[in-house]
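Practice problem: predict the structure.
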Amino acid sequence: MTNRLDTLTSWHADWAGLRVGVLGLGVTGFSVADTLAELGADVLVVASAAGDERAGLIEVIGARLVTSDLDAAPAELVAHQPELLVVSPGFPPSHPVLVWAAEAGIPVWGDIELAWRVRDKVGTPAEWILVTGTNGKTTTVQLTAAMLAEAGLRVAPCGNIGVPALDAVRDPQGFDVLVVELSSYQLHYLTGQSGPDKVTPYSSVCLNIADDHLDWHGSLEAYIDAKTEVYSRTRVACVYNRSDLVTENMVRRADVAEGARAIGFGLGVPGPSDLGIVDGILVDRAFLEDRFTSALELTTVDDLAAAGLSAPHIVANVLAAAALARSFGVPPAVIRQALLGFSLDAHRIQHVLTAGGVGWVNDSKATNPHAADASLRSYPSVVWIVGGLLKGVDVGDLVSRHAERLRGAVVIGVDRVAVLAAFQRHAPNVPVFEVTANDTGDVMTEAVELASGVAASGDVVLLAPAAASMDQFANYAERGRQFSEAVKERWGGLTDERPDDQPTA
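Answer:
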């Protein structure tokens, strides 16, 4: 069995009849099943529900579907005797089906492993640039892709960003480069993989590390171990965050390819082999011949501010993306041009409106304390809307760190008892208000009304929850959308002509 899997390193290999179980039927799970069925494998999909459109397409693509509560390996999966199990991101190794697979000696892959092995479907395989980190992944992927596209390369942002890597690999137009966003879950299922066809990226970056998904990984050490896999076998540039020593240490201990360079980025003055800022100018001292005495200008902080990219953590994302693009040979002038036309996604420090001198900012994407910390640092006086599904993370340090900048706090979410307790311990003088509405449609209306009662001219009301959204909302996007709609409903007719709440680096 193992020998056969080791030979399956190409779209043109003989996958026919390989018995495969696919765990999960989300966007990624369906892409896995569709790919394997097209390859001729005998595919059995196991999922907890079958109520959406994808379930109705399983038979159409030539696979089979079993629904189960998944508290154990379903009898149909056991009878299938899979030679391989491909798992969707999000299923922890402690899941009963994966425990069964481990005990049965069944190899387990993630979708990224499969995508790498079949990357030659359309012409010459694309190079892969990998991006991970606790926060900033999607923005950095989009920035990198924009810079590469501006240089005339055929590029696809994919992976955890929402477009499965398998869909990009199978796209009939083909690509020169895939910029692949990887979660810690996806990286976990790459660790331990071996052989000549292990994922070998062109360049890679870990943007930062903070406590997150500890309930899934079991410990911070296990989380870091998974993230370290992003650098494994990197051939050209291992990009790390100079202000986060964990990422530098990850590069030091990763199994990188011979000749790969460590490239730092940060908001300070760069050393040789770094990208950074000098007198308000973003510069490259890594990818030029005389990097010890010279630097190349990429753009300026003022230009980034004009493009709405001036928050410090976004500037850091710009520098990381520029390092990746420069590793691929993109000229500085092209990077500057790409940045002029770039705009952030919704729900990322998105200015909603300014009314009565109070700015309202939607950063619903700040789903953990590290992201919320970066967002809070962008504004001097804040009414903070915080709370949600904490995922086992303590927000006490975050509350303590920003107590002096808080005009007030509005607490939402099912875990609000823990958040309220954190304010009582670490910021007892900050006025705190609790949203008690249970109906999803009322949560943000009440939050906005409470925030309106405490905010004063010069303040920013900031939705940066430091928590996941699934306790009360479908996802962070719905949470942000409902916040923005509630703000516009409350203040839309009273907006100031000029927003005065833009963050600065």
